[in-house]
């Protein structure tokens, strides 16, 4: 896949970091403002998709990147399950128990485990979307060879 | 209503167990269909017509696709039989009449249950049910999350979120399996 024009490349360079940081903001403030893991994860994967689309498929080692993305995705969903089970083991007697102190409503560090769930789901969604995109790109490269 | 639900659940369990032990792939599929369509009626009896509609569509589509795959891959004898009987008009007519009658009976059956489900719903305009009121009034204190939506999807409905994440994971595994031309070295 070819890269795009220099204008697109420059704009992508300028904008990409902001999009990534905004995605992290959406994920970490998921329990305070609209958004959360699912929306923020889409932002994170969008950064990498923008990178590959604007700079062409030679900018990254796509195969290695895809493998790592799917590994990170598996680890993230495992963390999600682990968080759910920890609450069960610590004497809550329910799956998905909130075992951390809840804190004051409206502060960044509050709501117990919900921010941790948000981070796990955000990483999982971002890695999953990136893996699907990279698999499609690699498939197209192999077809056109 | 509990009696109807128990009978339905009993039928679904029997269908599921039969699907495990059926010798023919086609009959196993059809007994899986019993489970799916029984679930439609369960959703209707439990005041969830939206889920019932989704379940009907998904069940019908997957059943048709799976039956087509099974017929195409295993039941070669069936196709030859149809070709032989095409000469005689009476057999084909009886088959078509049977098909149309089955569709009509099934449609009337589901129409009856949908009609019952509609009468059980809240009146038009009364949008908050018992559960939703509890979420809105006590959600913030119980979860400690200022964003009520996040509080609900990660605390009260954690199983839903786990299911969504699992669906995404399965989708990725499926894409990687289908699109892989060369294996890993």
Q: Can you give keywords for this protein?
A:
heterodimer; A: 145 residues; mainly alpha; 4 helices; elongated; B: 185 residues; 8 helices
Describe this structure as you would to a colleague.
The complex is a heterodimer of chains A (about 140) and B (about 180). Chain A has helices at about 5-30, 35-55, 60-90, 115-145. Chain A is built from 4 helices and no strands. Helix content of chain A is about 70%, strand content about 0%. Chain A is an all-alpha fold and about 140 residues long. Chain B has a domain at about 1-120. The relative contact order of chain B is 0.06. Chain B has helices at about 1-20, 25-45, 50-75, 75-85, 90-120, 130-145, 150-155, 160-180. The interface of A and B includes residues 30, 73, 84, 128 and 139 of A.
User: Which band does the percent of strand residues of chain B land in?
Assistant: under 5%
Number of helices of chain B: 8
Biggest interface goes to:
A-B, 40 and 30 residues
**Percent range of helical residues of chain B:** over 70%
Instruction: Classify the oligomer.
Output: heterodimer
Number of helices of chain A: 4
Shape by Cα distribution of chain B: extended
User: How would you sum up the major sheet of chain B?
Assistant: none
Low-confidence stretches of chain B: none
**What is the CA–CA distance across the termini of chain B?**
58 Å
The percent range for helix content of chain A is over 70%
**CA gyration radius of chain A, whole angstroms:** 18 Å
Q: How many independent structural domains of chain A?
A: 1
User: Structural class per helix/strand content of chain B?
Assistant: mainly alpha
Largest sheet of chain A: none
